[in-house]
């Protein structure tokens, strides 16, 4: 109904004015032709209503007066006789009052309707903006954490580790000097060098965790392979990486997000799913590049506990940031299957293939 | 010119590492540091001029990669022995560095104890690498995973060789499929055969091998 009225509101005021006049004239004619004994007064309301709704209350009042005039004139023209000349005036005034009350009511209704509509529009716009803002913030947050991690990883790798290397060299110099003097403390200096060397390895491992994917295009394949190996050893499970074709990811951010998705999925499989076998695959087809992580664990619980829901949300966000299609579901054969597919032709529709 | 001490040139963008490496080397009676540099172009210029016996090069430098520097150094001074000193994992980078012409690879976390040993080894004309790395190479050799490049063309079918070459030239598998007018499944099958024939364990290795082969036999 509202839709219908809305569609009617589109045409210009001129058409509405013309239409109301035609209606009043037409009903007046019918009223005249059917004689004065049958009253058509209520039908004039159609013209009045049109005038109020689509033009305004003053024009509505004018149409009311015109309708009443036409009605009285029609009755008289079709031969109505009144005992007193005051009677048609009295009838006309009653009818006019009735019309004017309708005009006033309709005008109020219309302004209420318009206000409501404006309010709904405003709220919807505010809500949409809020949602977009939230989405943007969430992405920004991910990006910042990614950037900060990368920066920290690089600082550790290129700054701290190199500094510690300098320290081991200095220790070695000291050790050799002590050895030349034939002092018993030589062994201690050697020990210091070893401890600092362990520190370098610790920092390197930290850096690797923060910034796992090297910047070359084949970096993701190498990183996932290494990650599968480390996970197997660390958690005493079988975590394999399979990749039949070389898959190159030229955008380091994309590679980074795919790596984190794999990391999160494997972490979930081990921690929540108690999986013993995990398979990470990187596949390329004509249409897309797909990362998938399949495990033989207990599968996704329904409903998800909030913490895990968050992990899945972040994976989905990462996927969205690189324009991927994300899916996490219970596999037919038990366990969980997580996939992220990136279209081979970003932004373009699937082209028909010969 | 008869040198009493072997001359060593350092290329590393960390001053602290250069400083203490110099101190350590100067402590040896038979070794001396003849110069140092933080970036590749400067290093290449000075090494060509000063003619050291050994250059110790970090892979990640301020301007340009150490691997490229090794290649240029070997081109300019074929007799120089290069030792790579790197924070990067030897399993990922050592093969690349040695194939570029380096005679040794040391992880920075092991530098202090091993660098003097490595310098003496390369001066004696040997190759230096850690025991772990030597074991990996030996295993690859025994498994036949270090293919003799010349015979490669004989081992692969024409279509397989075509896939291998295109991958080596840097094309994506998707482009390879398009250029050869076959489906990705077919390319995948070719890759599986190549891996089997060349005894490569995974796609990353296949790619590395393809790129390396392309570099050595660009005419193909």
Would you give an account of this structure?
The complex is a heterodimer of chains A (354) and B (220). Chain A has three domains: 2-131, no CATH class; 146-210; 219-343, 2-Layer Sandwich (Heat Shock Protein 90). Chain A has helices at residues 2-9, 13-33, 44-54, 57-77, 86-181, 186-210, 219-235, 252-271, 306-321, and strands at residues 238-242, 277-284, 288-295, 324-330, 336-343. A five-stranded mixed beta sheet of chain A has the order 1-2-3-5-4. Helix content of chain A is 66%, strand content 10%. By secondary structure, chain B is α/β, with parallel strands linked by helices. Chain B has two domains: 6-140, 3-Layer(aba) Sandwich (Rossmann fold), CATH 3.40.50.2300; 149-216, Winged helix-like DNA-binding domain superfamily/Winged helix DNA-binding domain (Arc Repressor Mutant, subunit A), CATH 1.10.10. Chain B has a five-stranded parallel beta sheet, sandwiched between helices. In chain B, strand 4, helix 4 (90-100) and strand 5 (104-107) form a beta-alpha-beta unit. In chain B, helix 2 (40-50) packs parallel to helix 3, helix 8 (158-168) crosses helix 10 (184-198) and helix 8 (158-168) packs across helix 11 (203-216). The longest helix of chain B is centred in the C-terminal third of the chain and has 15 residues, at 184-198. Chain B starts with 5 loop residues before the first strand and ends with a helix. The chains are: A alpha+beta (354), B alpha/beta (220). Chains A and B meet through helix 5, helix 6 and helix 7 of A and helix 1, helix 5, helix 9, helix 10 and helix 11 of B.
């Amino acid at each position: 109904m509202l839709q219908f009225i809305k569609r009617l509101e589109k045409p210009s005021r001129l058409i509405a004015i013309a239409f109301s006049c035609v209606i009043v004239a037409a009903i007046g004619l019918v009223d005249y032709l059917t004689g004065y004994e049958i009253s058509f007064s209520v039908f004039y309301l159609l013209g009045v209503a049109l005038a109020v709704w689509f033009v305004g209350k003053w024009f509505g009042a004018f149409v009311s007066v015109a309708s009443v005039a036409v009605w009285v004139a029609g009755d008289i023209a079709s031969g109505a006789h009144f005992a007193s000349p005051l009677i048609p005036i009295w009838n006309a005034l009653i009818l006019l009052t009735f019309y004017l009350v309708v005009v006033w009511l309709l005008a109020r209704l219309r302004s209420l309707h318009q206000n409501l509509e404006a309010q709904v529009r405003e709220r919807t716009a505010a809500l949409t903006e809020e949602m977009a803002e939230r989405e943007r913030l969430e992405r920004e947050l991910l990006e910042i954490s990614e950037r900060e991690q990368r920066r920290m990883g690089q600082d550790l790798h290129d700054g701290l580790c190199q500094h510690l290397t300098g320290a081991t060299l200095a220790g070695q110099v000291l050790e050799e000097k002590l050895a030349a003097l034939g002092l018993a403390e030589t062994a201690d200096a050697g020990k210091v060098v070893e401890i600092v060397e362990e520190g370098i390895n610790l920092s390197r491992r930290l850096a690797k965790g923060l910034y796992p994917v090297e910047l070359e295009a084949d970096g993701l394949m190498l990183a996932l392979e290494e990650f599968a190996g480390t996970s197997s050893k660390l958690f005493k499970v079988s975590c394999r990486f399979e990749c039949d074709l070389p898959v190159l990811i030229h955008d380091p951010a994309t590679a980074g997000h795919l790596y984190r998705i794999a990391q999160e999925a494997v972490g979930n499989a081990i921690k929540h799913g108690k999986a013993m076998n995990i398979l990470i695959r990187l596949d390329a087809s004509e249409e897309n590049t797909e990362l998938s992580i399949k495990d033989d664990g207990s599968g996704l619980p329904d409903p998800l506990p909030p913490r895990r829901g968050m992990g899945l949300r972040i994976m989905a966000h990462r996927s969205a940031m690189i324009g991927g299609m994300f899916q996490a579901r219970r596999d037919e054969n038990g366990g969980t299957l997580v996939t992220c597919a990136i279209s081979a032709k970003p932004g373009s529709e699937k082209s028909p293939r010969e | 010119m008869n040198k009493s001490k072997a001359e060593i040139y350092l290329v590393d963008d960390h001053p602290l590492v250069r400083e203490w490496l110099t101190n350590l080397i100067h402590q040896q009676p038979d070794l001396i540091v003849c110069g140092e540099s933080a970036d590749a172009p400067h290093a290449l210029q000075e090494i060509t001029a000063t003619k050291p016996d050994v250059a110790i090069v970090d892979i990640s430098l301020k301007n340009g990669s150490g691997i490229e520097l090794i290649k240029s150094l070997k081109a300019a001074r074929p007799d120089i022995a290069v030792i790579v000193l790197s924070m990067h994992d030897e399993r990922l980078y050592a093969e690349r560095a040695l194939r570029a012409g380096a005679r040794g690879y040391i992880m920075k976390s092991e530098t202090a104890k091993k660098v003097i040993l490595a310098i003496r080894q390369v001066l004696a004309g040997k190759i230096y690498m850690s025991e772990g790395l030597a074991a990996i190479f030996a295993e690859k050799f025994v498994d036949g995973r270090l293919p003799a490049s010349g015979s490669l063309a004989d081992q692969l079918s024409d279509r397989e060789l075509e896939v291998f070459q295109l991958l080596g030239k840097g094309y994506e598998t998707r482009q390879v499929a398009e250029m050869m007018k076959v489906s990705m499944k077919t390319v995948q099958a070719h890759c599986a055969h190549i891996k089997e024939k060349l005894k490569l364990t995974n796609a990353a290795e296949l790619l590395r091998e393809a790129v390396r082969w392309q570099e050595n036999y660009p005419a193909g």
